[in-house]
Amino acid sequence: MEELVSRRLRHRVRVLGDLLGQTMAAQLGEDFLEKVEHVRHLAKTRRQEGQGDFARLREVLSDLDEEELISIARAFNQFLNLTNIAEQADATENLQFPETSNLKTLFNKLNRLNIESTKIGDVVKNLHCDLVLTAHPTEITRRTLIQKYNRIAEALSDVLENEPLSQKNKVELERLVAEVWHTDEIRTEKPTPQDEAIWGYAVIEHSFWHAIPKLWQGLDQLLKEYVNTSLPIECAPITISSWMGGDRDGNPNVTTEVTNEVLRLARWMAADLYLRDIEELLSQLSMSRCNEEVTSLCGKESHEPYRSILRDLRSKLNDTRDWAETGDPPHSGLILNKNDLFEPLHTCYRSLHECGMSIIAEGLLKQTLIRVSTFGVTLIDLDIRQGADKHTELMEELISFLGMGSYRTWSEKARHDFLLEELASKRPLIPDSWQPEGDVGETLRTIRLIANSNADGVSCYIISMAKNPSDVLSVILLLRKSGLTRSLPIVPLFETLDDLENAAWTLERLLRDRMYRDYIDGHQQVMIGYSDSAKDVGQMAAAWAQYRAQEELVEVTEKYDIDLTLFHGRGGAAGRGGAPIRQAILSQPPNTIKRGMRVTEQGEMIRFKYGSPILAQNSMDLILSAAIEANLIPSPKPRDNWRNLMDRLAGIAMREYRDTVRDESGFAEYFRASTPEQELSLLALGS
Description:
Layout: H1 2-28, H2 30-49, H3 54-62, H4 66-93, H5 102-112, H6 117-126, E1 128-133, H7 143-156, H8 167-181, H9 193-226, E2 238-242, H10 256-284, H11 292-298, H12 305-326, H13 338-354, H14 358-375, E3 381-387, H15 388-401, H16 412-424, H17 438-452, E4 458-464, H18 469-481, E5 490-494, H19 497-501, H20 503-511, H21 514-520, E6 523-529, H22 531-537, H23 539-559, E7 563-569, H24 581-586, E8 596-601, H25 603-610, H26 613-632, H27 640-661, H28 667-674, H29 677-680
Parallel strand pairs: 1-2, 1-8, 2-3, 3-4, 4-5, 5-6, 6-7, 7-8
């Protein structure tokens, strides 16, 4: 089988390479194509045989003018892109979910280990993994090219070894390859945060919207087969959140107006996607038999009761989409919360089952219910992220305006006591007439935006560079005094070595206060920073500090009987905490994924992991199976001698790292001279 796959892949790469060559020759001539082949041959010989005339290769490249160099660079870049497309298509083509899934392999393993069925069912039903899409670092490939690459991948399914291309398939691939070649790869303008959010919504529309119902139903099938239980329809093992348009830490382009617009865009897109499902359901659910619940919703006179309910939902979704587009105040008749959509559809679902039409209920209607459970009516909840120093600046100006001194000069204990006292007080703190300017005014406007909507569509508020309990309490106070009644999760992000080492102390100081424990209502979320900690002390020392911090945070939350969700701020590159996701999850300390986790999926990796429904399904299968396994077969605790050795290794690694990159090492000058860092900064990137 592997040999067959390898031959098929080589054949597809050859087909795409030939089409790319024809396209280049048509524009730039056969002479140019010969130069590309000559460069390729010289480079390939040197790489494969370990020898070759490198001087000749350099001479050939030196003889090219600037336009030819750019065109040859584009030629190799597009060939590698097409090769990647072929590899991804080939790797996912024979996947049969859930028969060949990681989840299936895991359930077989759990069965062999004789793990109790009830325990497996409880873990799966209570597990929640939240994938948080970010635009940082920015995906360099333009959205229009990503869409063309996806269409090429789809067309490759008809390219089989030992069979000639059909005329239709050949023309389609020729056209798509030509479209790619003649499209500029590089943006000429920086994407706005709104552009980045729209790109994220496109990933939802084209990938997650289709992949999540299939993942859910596959998991449900395995539960029935191995555990003799079903996944509740309200259960959402995987959800999607976003930082796009909400992450203002170090990004002045993300303003209150931008966040408000992005929240509206998400509402519009959600209503639009659900309308497509409702329209299709209207054509399907033409039956007349129903239970009393459906009759009470649509009236006894209705000949087609399900369609009556769906027409009402269609009307409300149309109004909701119009409202989201105009930005007007909300009015009656809109679908503003999940139950407005879920309950009528679920009533239809139960009725179809009760009336002997289960096969119909288990079709698109069930998929739509799974989507509502997963995406809600906001499509993708937004994380707000802001630096702790911005809240300190706001408190400083507020306290000064009120004539109460200088907040910045207060000790941590004085800040802590003041914030708790004000949280317990019913008196107003922020005068309506106070309108600070600059960054302080912008921070306050964002807080007021969240409060005015009661954090609707907002999943949490993340505090970058959190160091002390007052960093968390000040945000709670500002939100409360701005009118927020919901207990929005406030998430401290610990990033540097010192902050990671003090994370458990900071959290325990918060949990000692009854008021804070009442606020979080038994659940605490903490974010672990990978990139900044690696920049602070190097990758090895940072990884060990992250591990120890998680262990200590678990100990503290267990002491106070609090459920802990750890939010991993990982990236794609190794320096940003990147690693194969399965190994990364299974290597976490024991008991750190009790009820799930959150993890960032960063801009440059989203397309490679979630760029198509099958890729998204495969990636989520990896994540979900690893999270379940980490709960049921936790990794062992490190032995004391292992810990001692890691302490020594981390200390040595940190000293070597800092000696290399800091102070008088000259590393910064070397880095700028030996890498295209300064040229990259000129690209039209967003975050």
